[in-house]
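dumping these here so i dont lose them again. two proteins, back to back, each one seq then structure tokens. dont judge the mess
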Amino acid sequence: MARPTRCRKICTEPEYDSFGPDGLPSGKEVIMTLDEYEAIRLIDLEKYTHEQCAGQMGISRTTVTEIYETARYKLADSVVNGKKLSITGGHYQLCDGMALSCCNRKCKRAEIFAGKVKDHTKTSMHRKETGQMRIAVTYENGTVFQHFGHTASFKLYDVEDEKIVDTQIVDTDGKGHGALSGFLSQAGVEILICGGIGGGAKAALSDAGIRLYGGVTGSADEAVDAYLAGNLGYNPDVHCNHHGHEHACGEHHCGEKKHGCAGNESNCR
């Protein structure tokens, strides 16, 4: 009986997850998984040895070598043959960011948990007061995060008499897609502002009575100000079609959780 594939720990998901040749698209695509991306990042950019990379990702050195060689081949195939490169999927889980040394000294998640960046993420939230309206925005580094299913945190705005009276940033605790509608409902959210979102998540939000304003980009604070002023630009027909299929955003085929294993390696095959 084959051993289950272990989830590989990665520091953070890439800020840019697709690249293509200049000019007309070739119609051909190379898919690089996020664990392959992480091996490239650690070895080629951070100058880790294969042994150090293995320790960081929680896998064997032999496995790192295999992943790295596959990733390098995909890069070469994309560059030489003019194919679009998309970074998605794979057996992985994000580091918990609980120590500055968890990845390396540049680890953004560690800085957030250590309170070294302006937007400190909280695991518990303030209670909304009676008579207030609560707006949630998919949130990352001050901007509207563009993939609802990947959302690691929301910024919540409590509004009273058309004025923001309180804000907070809350961690989604690894929830994704339909589960996020329940998370928002329990938080007392009535309005969601986001970027891309799939049909299933839109239906779940509708069932929860949460009004959706999708297709929004730019500053999260400015988006909420625009909503309150009645001039928010949004797309009522927004549809997340990331990497060619509706549920690709946040879907990693590694267990049932957003980022895969969630502590149960037997789910990863």
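---- next one ----
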Amino acid sequence: MARSSVAAIDWITVLLFLLLVGFGWGNIYSASYENETFSLTDFSQPHVKQAFWILFSIVLIIIIQAIEVKFYERFAGLIYVISILSLLGLFVFGKTISGATSWYAFGPVGLQPSEFAKACTALALAKFLSDMQTNINLIGHQLRAFLIIALPALVIIPQPDPGSALVYAAFFFPLYREGLAAIYLIVGVSAAVLFILTLLFKPLWVVLAIAAVMLFILIKNRKRKPPYSKFLLALIVITGFCFSVNYIFNNVFEQRHRDRFNIVLGKEVDSKGIGYNTNQSQIAVGSGGWTGKGWKEGTQTKGGFVPEQHTDYIFSTVGEEWGFLGATFVVILFILLLIRLINLAERQKSQFSRVYGYSVVGILFIHFAINIGMVTGLLPTIGIPLPFFSYGGSGLWGFTILLFIFIKLDANRVNEW
């Protein structure tokens, strides 16, 4: 890399990345620590593998920064197609781990293409939206954008890996920033709220409550001649949706997903079965108090009460060993990273870079919010790692590629006119 390119790199973002990766490795070290069998050279130990993956991430960063910046825009479509083919190839060549055929096995090393497909989709969406012929207010162009987002998600769901597919909702962030009508976001959030309410209460009660609210609005605004037909149509759609929730929940969702929703919603208590991980994670986080039990001193962590704690539940190690203050520190690091990336996205001179930047923000936010919610029992367990923090080579490499492509684009913004 030229010296000017190195100077243009946003080192604040790099520092936040290093802090998250470093602190994450320290907690993986602690979660896998055993007095008698622990070794700094045993590649079977999670912390040793993670150290290797971190070192290889540095190699990836150097390669990303060395590639000509126009490459990412020029070949965005081809990169996206290759990522879709890699996802489809799993159905023929994939290895099944924990019930999901989401991995390619290369000897002792496994790669999960869904972790890399997020960056590929972000490039493809940025390329499409930055095309001079694209107008996000046109229905046809909206459908094409939705197709770019939905295609990898639809391929991932049958693996089955609904957690990774859910992450693609993050792409509504850049779409909304580029002018997509807010009605889509309102409808999406409303559907999620109605889904939860219908699971908690009978569909009829939910519909009657909504009808009462609509009637109140109509009466209050009767002098303005409100659009009665639109209110009626909305009520019909809502009624149909609410009465279809139970069918979807019982016939589309798998039993393990139904169990996790029921536990979070308080409809079931299963601290020894499907709810074991969440229950033990909450105990670990709660037992840390204000300052924690100390690094490598967590009794829940040392006792192995939270299965595979170094992966999706790594934040419970933070809560137990570093306490409320340590957990708050991690949350602040992520918030600072997200705020910094939003600021970088807003200062981009090209739409391609801005869209890609907001895609990065959306993906990281969804992962961060869902993982923390999952570990603390606010959301059902769906297997989403904490970016830069959880154990795993594919996850770390995927997030590293995602972030540092944007850092490369930002470093080149002075040449984007």
